[in-house]
Amino acid sequence: MTSATIPSVGSQMVVLVADDVEANIELLRDQLASLGCRVIHAVDGPSTLARCAEEHPDLCILDVSMPPGDLGVEARETGFEVCRRLKRDPRTARIPVIFVSALNDARDRLKAIEVGGDDFLLKPHNRHVLGARVRSLLKLKGATDALEESLKRLRELQRARDDLMRMIVHDLKTPLTSMLATLEMLRDGDFGSVDERPARALSDVEGKAEDLLGLIQDLLDVSKVEEQSLSLTPEPIAPAALLAEVLFDWKLRFRQEQTRARTEVADDAPIFRADKTLLKRVLANLVQNAITHSPVPVTLTLTARRDPTGIVLSVSDTGPGIPDEYQDLVFQKFEQVRAANAPRVRSSGLGLAFCRIAIESHGGRIWLRSKEGEGSTFHIVLPLDPIEHPGRPMKSGEDLVEGRT
Q1: Tell me, what's the pLDDT at 193?
Q2: What residues form DSSP beta bridges with 262?
Q3: Counting Cβ atoms within 10 Å, is residue 397 exposed (0-12), middle (13-18) or buried (19+)?
Q4: Per DSSP, which regions of 204-363 are E strands?
Q5: Tally of helices (H runs) and strands (E runs) in the chain
């Protein structure tokens, strides 16, 4: 009876046989050759590790008892120590290991599993059983390698796409900023008086252009955080003043959208430190989200109160609400959830993702409480002083992001 060969995945499979008995090596060489494998060998612990690191075999067959060399273990432990080191080394961690040993103690089988071995066969082994185990592990190794290569290509494509997006977004920002400046000059009458109706139209266009600028900034900041390069510039913030500024900044838009807005600040709401520019953009995104996803008119309530861990800021609306199963999804990039009675709007799905990233960069958290037909409330908990995260340094200067007010 002949053993089936292993399907080739681009090249011949390589198996390393580690045994200090020449006859055992030759026996395994003949059996593996019949499976279509190329066999390399080693005769002790150090040479096994060296050959695995140099030649990256697709499979390793280990004897347990071999000369340990400088591995610092007894000969009876050599195979286990070799396997342990192979699995700890990123270069060799994915190499499957089959132990073939004369040791027949249950403790040895258990130890083979603990050090990362994939199988354990007793000497003298059954050639058909060995062939089946080898074929199975090599097929699994081939599939794992193919998946790893696909993942690598996918990551490269993702990086290329992200680089292109950042380049395009950055190039869009400069002409849009110039357009906003021109619109503001037109609305203010710098080029001549403007009647009431054209002035309202200019204000509306300016508002939409500011929304677009905010989206561009969200894209840039999401990319910065994902690259761990977003910097914070903390400053003392009074909650009442902060919420009053947000309402003032949105006064015109509230009037256009027939939105009623108010603030509620608890007497014990503490002064805290945060990046004010980022935090105002977070609150602006939450206000924008409530306005654009609710039928008019909508009522907004911005609140601040003390929390055992710092301060809680909340933005509540009387909109259509969001079903429970979607309340975590809304914070993911490019995800959108539309309630049954909400207006259809065009949205990138980036605003709430940016909010989560910006709040977490302060060491805080953001979450949603909502019921369909009963509105939504976004809660933000922030420490009184930002908690510095590894890879997200707090500094000032050239890295300060631009805010949208």
Answers
A1: 83
A2: 301
A3: exposed
A4: 235-237, 260-265, 272-274, 299-307, 310-317
A5: 10, 12
* Domains within the chain, CATH numbers bracketed: 14-125 (3.40.50.2300), 153-226 (1.10.287.130), 235-382 (3.30.565.10)
Using alpha carbons, select from 335, 329, 355 the residue that is nearest to residue 221: 355
CA separation for the pair 121, 117 (Å, rounded): 11
R_g over Cα of the chain: 32
Residue 150's contacts (CB-CB under 8 Å, 6 or more residues apart) are none
Q: 349 or 314, which is more confident?
A: 314
Quote the pLDDT of residue 261: 94
- Give the per-residue pLDDT at 7: 44
Residue among 85, 117, 86 at smallest CA distance from 100: 117
pLDDT tens by residue, 289-300: 888 877 768 899
- The Cα–Cα gap between 381 and 233 comes to 18
pTM beyond cutoff 0.70 = no
Distance of CA 69 to the CA centre of its chain: 43
User: Could you report the per-residue pLDDT of 194-233, keeping only the tens digit for each?
Assistant: 788 887 788 778 777 877 777 777 666 666 655 555 678 8
CB crowding 43-72: b at 16 or more within 10 Å, else e: bbbbbbbebbeeeebbbbbbbbbbebeebe
Helix or strand (DSSP H, E) at 293: none
- What was the pLDDT predicted at 333? 54
**Cα distance between residue 390 and residue 374, in whole Å:** 39
> Which residue type sits at 119?
D
